[in-house]
Amino acid sequence: MKQRSSSHIHDTTKDPTIRAASELDTAMGTAHVDEDTIAIIDPHIKEREDARAEEQTVQRKAKQLPITDVLSGSAVFTGASNRESVRVLLITERKGLEMGGVTEPDIDELASLFSEVHVLALNHDVGAATARTFRRAANTWVYPVHPPSLFSLWNESARVVEEQLVFSGGFRPDIVIADGPVWAGYVGERISKKYGRPFQIHVRRDFYADLEREAGLAGWVTRYLVRQRVRNAPCILAHSSTLEQLLLTNEPGLAGKVYLKPTYYNLAGWQKTPITTNLRELFSSFTFFMTHVTHGSLRAHSDRVLDGCAPVLRRYPTACLVVVCPKEGSDVLKKRAQALGVKNQVLFLYDFSQCLSYLKTTDVYLQLSEQPDDIEWVLMAASVGTPIITHPTGFLRELLSDGESASMCPSDSPSCVSNKLAELMSHTEMRRRLGTSAQTAAFARIPQDYGVYLAAYRQQIEQCGV
After folding, report:
1. Strand locations in 7-104 (E)
2. Would residue 75 count as lying in a domain?
3. Which is nearest to 345 in space by CA: 305, 286, 284?
4. What is the pLDDT of residues 402-461, one digit of tens each?
5. Residues 6+ apart with CB under 8 A from 168
6. Is residue 451, in this structure, part of any structural domain at all?
7. CATH number (domain holding residue 152)
8. Helices (DSSP H) in 90-215: which residue ranges?
9. pTM, to two decimals
10. Domain for residue 77, yes or no?
11. What residues make up the domain containing 41?
């Protein structure tokens, strides 16, 4: 990670909350008690009312100041700072934020890191209902943007920002974050340039695949503009190793500008989470469960997992393989299961949010993936003591040992999977021992200090693109 020197600038006179607290302290300090009426009287109340009226007049006029004058106020953020001094603007296209009550862990994380989080929620669906600004949490505000058409997205976004986030001291947020490079990136880039704030793009999903689905000339123009925006971005924060590789593969010139978001594996949280979906209740006709989770990538080698399980499934009619995958990518695996003669014993589920419950109620977890992100499923299984058959990729080589805390197989060896699986099915004590050893190894080797993770994440955001 790049290190940059920086200084702290915290001008409290430009922070309305600190200024209000200071005024209250002064008022309380100068007040006196009239014993006859037992009332709190401020002898300077007239001066204070006049000063407050003058401040409100200044704020009203500030709305009409040219941008050069608005920018004359110093930004709090200068490259690094403490938690109390940094305010973040997140631009996102996520739906439903304006309704409130939506769980968004990444927004909650930002709120725990910074003094204020302002969320500009873009909804460019024509005819969308207008929603009002609301306070999502103590230090988090959501500003819905509902333009009448996509062509007016920027004008409407600029209007909302000007009304809600520009004060007499200037533009309130110190960092501008785009949640993706498409329309959020478009609006975020323009806001950053207008108000002179550091800009970064956070990539949480494969936007290349999304763009490929847009047909015609409009789709081609959108793809071109988005790729240009990505190439010109000062800094991009990829939320997974797979996305980082995807960006660098498609845009080799981004080397040095793409950073990987720190990862926190919440082993203790996974362990304590209650079961919400029990595979044994869901599929009560089976007695032995194997589970495999895949997002459909070729490097996940799900076909070889099926090939390795098939001989065991044919031998044991009451055993089954549960495959958790995207619904749109399941047809290929269903056809393969049919060709292998185990169609009725390979069960497909599509709700990834229930994976932890599936892993807690399965007998064995299988993973041959070479995708770095898929390591999380292995660690999730290890945290709850589920025995694992896996390919030794990434830091799993150092974390788990073949025969001691897991059963290891090469990613291109279905026969190894068959042999290891048959062995585990026949030895209950071996399954228990491997599961317990994997759990012990995971908790011993993977840091569980959430504060350290948050500090690293905050530092990365503050230094990104500065």
Report:
1. 32-34, 39-41, 87-92
2. no
3. 286
4. 999 999 999 999 999 999 999 999 999 999 999 999 999 999 999 889 999 999 999 999
5. 55, 58, 59, 62, 73
6. no
7. 3.40.50.2000
8. 105-113, 153-165, 183-195, 207-212
9. 0.68
10. no
11. 26-70
